[in-house]
Design a protein that fits this description.
This protein is of the alpha/beta class. The protein is 48% helix and 17% strand. The protein has 17 helices and 14 strands. The strands form three sheets. A six-stranded mixed β-sheet has the order 6-7-5-8-9-10, sandwiched between helices. 31% of the residues are buried. About 8% of the residues have low confidence. It binds guanosine-5'-diphosphate and magnesium ion.
Length: 435
C-alpha cells in the first residue's frame, strides 16, 4: 500500500465526506491505515506500506522517476504482486507503474470498486457497482483523451486514430450505462418484492455499521468466534459476512458485517456504496461501531447518522441503534474517565468496548438482548397439521422456544414474538391461555 501525500494536489480536497477538506488535515498515518484497512477488506495480504511526500504530481508516474526506481528493488525482494496507490492515478500513470514494477496497480477508486463488487449482494447493489465501474472507466477515457489532445497541442489536427477509438469506446460505455440505468429503475420499482429474500434467515439480523477501521470486523469475529456450530456452516456457505451468534438469554441472532464508510469517498461511488448498505434496511437492529480514539470520531459519527437517515431508516427504528465506542484499550486512564462520563450523558444506547481485548463485550451482549427482546411476549399456539404456511410464518416471525406434536397431528408451539406480530399470530392460530 503506497500512500501518496500530495500536499499541492488539487485532488486532496475533493471528496464527499461531511468535512470537505478532511484529507488535508488528516494525518498521513491515519490515511495510510485506512487504505490498509480497505486492502484487508478484500483479503489482500499487506506486506509493506509506504508514504510518499509529493510536492507536485508527475504526469508520467505520479510519484516521479526517482521514487519509481527507489521502490523497484523492494517490489522484487518482497515479491509484491499488487500495489494499491492511495490516491488518484491516470490510466497512463497506472500503466507506467505496472510496467516499471511488473506488478498490478490499483488506485484508491479502483480498490473501492473491488470491495463494493465483492460485497454487493442485492441485484440493485450489483447494478450500482457495475454502473460505478463504467462511469469510472468512462471518466478515465475522457481524461486520457484530453491528455492525448494536450500532447497534440494546438496543431489543429482533428480526428487522429486514437481519438476515434476512444470515442467509440465512450459511446459503447455510454450505451451500457444507459441500459444499466434502465434496469436499475425497474429493480428499484420492484424493490419491495425483493425484500422478502431476507426471510431466508430465521433470526433477527444485527448489522454492524461504521467507518472503515472502526473495528467492525474485529468485533464481528470476537462476538461470533466462541461458537462454531452447524448453523455457522450454513451461513458461511451463504455469505461469509453473516454469522450466527447466541445472546445470554439464549436468543439467536445473525450478525452482519458491512463494507463500512470510507472517508472522502469519490463522488461517483456514492450510489454504489449506498447500495451495499441496503441490507442494513433489513436489519432488526444496528450496531454503530465507532473508533472513539480517532481524531475525527464525532464527524464520522455524524456522517453515519446522516446516511442512515437518508437510507430511510425510519425514526421509529432509530431506537434500535446501539452505539459501540470501540478501542477503549487505547485510551489513557484520564481520557477514559472523560469519555465514560460522556457515554453516560448519551443515555442508554452507548457501550464502551475493546473488540480486541474483549472488555465490555458482556455489556454489549446484554444490551442487544435488552433492545431486541425488550417488549417481546411469550405465546403458546396450536398450528393445524395442514397449515404449512402458518408454521413457516412462525419460524420467520417468531423465536420458537419449544415445539411438540399433538395426537391429532397438529403442533403446539411456544414462541417469543414482538407485540405487533403477537396480534397477527392470535388471529392466525388457536392460542393456549397461559396456565
Ligand atoms: N487497540 C485496538 N485496536 C482495535 C480494536 N478493534 C479493532 N482494532 C484494530 O483496528 C483495525 C481495524 O479493525 P477492523 O475490525 O478491520 O475494522 P473495520 O474496517 O471496521 O472492519 C485493525 O488493525 C484492528 O486490529 C480495539 O478494540 N482496540
Ligand atoms: Mg471490516
Amino acid at each position: 500500500v503506497l500512500h501518496v501525500e500530495a500536499k499541492a494536489s488539487p485532488r486532496s480536497a475533493q471528496g464527499a465526506g461531511a468535512n470537505g477538506s478532511v484529507d488535508a488535515r488528516r494525518s498521513a498515518d491515519a490515511q495510510t491505515e485506512e487504505a490498509v484497512g480497505l486492502a484487508l477488506a478484500i483479503n489482500l495480504n499487506v506486506v509493506e506500506t509506504l508514504v510518499v511526500n509529493l510536492a507536485k504530481p508527475h504526469p508520467a508516474t505520479l510519484i516521479g522517476p526517482g521514487k519509481v526506481e527507489e521502490f523497484k528493488g523492494l517490489m522484487a525482494a518482497l515479491e509484491i504482486e499488487l500495489v494499491v496507490v492511495n490516491g488518484h492515478l491516470s490510466p497512463v500513470q497506472q500503466r507506467n507503474l505496472e510496467t516499471a514494477w511488473t506488478v498490478k496497480v490499483l488506485d484508491r477508486a479502483g480498490l473501492i470498486l473491488e470491495i463494493f463488487g465483492e460485497r454487493a449482494r442485492t441485484k440493485e447493489g450489483r447494478l450500482q457497482v457495475e454502473l460505478a465501474h463504467l462511469t469510472y472507466q468512462k471518466s478515465r477515457l475522457v481524461r486520457s483523451w484530453t491528455h492525448l489532445e494536450r500532447q497534440r497541442g494546438g496543431l489543429g489536427f482533428v480526428g487522429g486514430p486514437g481519438e476515434t477509438q476512444i470515442e467509440a469506446d465512450r459511446r459503447m460505455i455510454q450505451a451500457r450505462i444507459g441500459r444499466i440505468e434502465k434496469r436499475l429503475e425497474t429493480v428499484k420499482r420492484t424493490r419491495k418484492l425483493h425484500r422478502t429474500s431476507r426471510s431466508k434467515v430465521p433470526y433477527p439480523i444485527v448489522a454492524l455499521v461504521g467507518y472503515t477501521n472502526a473495528g467492525k470486523s474485529t468485533l464481528f469475529n470476537t462476538l461470533t468466534d466462541a461458537e462454531v456450530d452447524a448453523r455457522d456452516q450454513l451461513f458461511a456457505t451463504l455469505d461469509p459476512t453473516m454469522r450466527h451468534m447466541k445472546l445470554p438469554s439464549g436468543r439467536s441472532v445473525v450478525l452482519s458485517d458491512t463494507v463500512g464508510f470510507i472517508s472522502n469517498l469519490p463522488t461517483d461511488l456514492i450510489a454504489a456504496f449506498r447500495a451495499t448498505l441496503e441490507e442494513v434496511l433489513e436489519a432488526d437492529m444496528i450496531i454503530h461501531v465507532r473508533d472513539i480514539t480517532h481524531e475525527d470520531s464525532d464527524a464520522q459519527a455524524g456522517d453515519v447518522e446522516q446516511v442512515l437517515a437518508n437510507l430511510g431508516i425510519e425514526e421509529s427504528r432509530r431506537q434500535s441503534v446501539v452505539e459501540v465506542w470501540n478501542k477503549i484499550d487505547l485510551l489513557p486512564e484520564q481520557t477514559r474517565d472523560i469519555v465514560e462520563q460522556r457515554s453516560k450523558r448519551e443515555g442508554g444506547a452507548v457501550v464502551m468496548v475493546s473488540a480486541q481485548s474483549g472488555e465490555g463485550l458482556d455489556m454489549l451482549r446484554d444490551m442487544l438482548d435488552k433492545v431486541l427482546g425488550a417488549d417481546n411476549v411469550n405465546l403458546d399456539v396450536i398450528v393445524d397439521a395442514i397449515d404449512g404456511a402458518g408454521l413457516h410464518w412462525l419460524y420467520e416471525n417468531a423465536e420458537v422456544l419449544s415445539r411438540s406434536n399433538l395426537e391429532d397431528g397438529s403442533v403446539e408451539m411456544n414462541v417469543r414474538i414482538s407485540p405487533a406480530k403477537a396480534g397477527v399470530a392470535r388471529d392466525m392460530f388457536a392460542t393456549v391461555a397461559p396456565a
